[in-house]
């Protein structure tokens, strides 16, 4: 149906086959239970660890496969989306947190955290967003002040919309270690790796979302939490540049999800319209159905081309902030349009949550918000045009 892809090798496709089989046998049958609970059981992450999902990009000395590529993660995103399921907060654990640890953790920190990261014993999250600040990271109010003996930071503040916040064992918290100045609003931000068992650390409400029901999202609060200085990530005051360093990969992951969601919606709609009959004929036989699905197939193809190009650029270390903004903007907007049209072709059944198209519809909406809103993406792209 689609153009031939050249972005993946036989190794990627072998990994894809293992995942597809695993999802069919171990995830799809219990997925409704996960949705009710709001997340998979913690032991599921141990199962993913056994499959090697967490260790692909971790250096061999810490027990990983040592491959510096994003393509295996892209395969995970494509396969879970294809089946209409998620692996809980795996994309955050591997796609968002790991790059920070690989780029900025000391050898001592890596030795302490990475083996447990790979085994699923240490699940991670990152806490940037606050009740009063979303895309404006420079507006962060959470503070971390050094104790008089210089051995700990005292962390105070609150975060919200934290993916994986309920089950996480280690959370990367973005906090102010020095006040912002009028000349540099972005200065003074640092990243602290906080053990969630620390006194004063609390998980507030588990937020009830429109979609993404198996990805736990929480409010976090820090009340005089003592964080050892050994758990500062990288240098104090460099937090903002660290965050922007990883944003292209985060946005690429969301773009892959957008493309995969649109492709899944197209496949669900094709199956449905061939089986469903109205007025004595199949829904697929109407010209409107054919034209709508032809439009959708073309948009999905365009999104795939953009994703594949971005995957190659990212692996080559050449994906710019503006490139990532374009691919995220395009793929998430395509997903919104395509899924909406495909749901319409399902008629009333498209609105019933047991149909995967309904889940896709609810799940995809946030992709135009998190990781930077579509409006923020347009601002970045405009800036790259010199505007």
TrEMBL record:
Cofactors demanded by this protein: FAD
Q: Would I find Flavoprotein among this entry's keywords? A: yes
The segment(s) forming the Acyl-CoA dehydrogenase/oxidase N-terminal domain are 9-121
Which InterPro entries does its entry note?
A: Acyl-CoA_dehydrogenase, Acyl-CoA_DH_CS, Acyl-CoA_Oxase/DH_mid-dom, Acyl-CoA_Oxase/DH_mid-dom_sf, AcylCo_DH-like_C, AcylCo_DH/oxidase_C, AcylCoA_DH/ox_N, AcylCoA_DH/ox_N_sf
Domain spans labelled Acyl-CoA dehydrogenase/oxidase C-terminal: 237-385
Keyword ATP-binding among record annotations: no
Q: In which pathway does it act?
A: Siderophore biosynthesis; mycobactin biosynthesis
* Positions of the Acyl-CoA oxidase/dehydrogenase middle domain: 125-225
The family classification in the record reads: Belongs to the acyl-CoA dehydrogenase family.
**What's the protein here called?**
Acyl-[acyl-carrier-protein] dehydrogenase MbtN
The species is: Catenulispora yoronensis
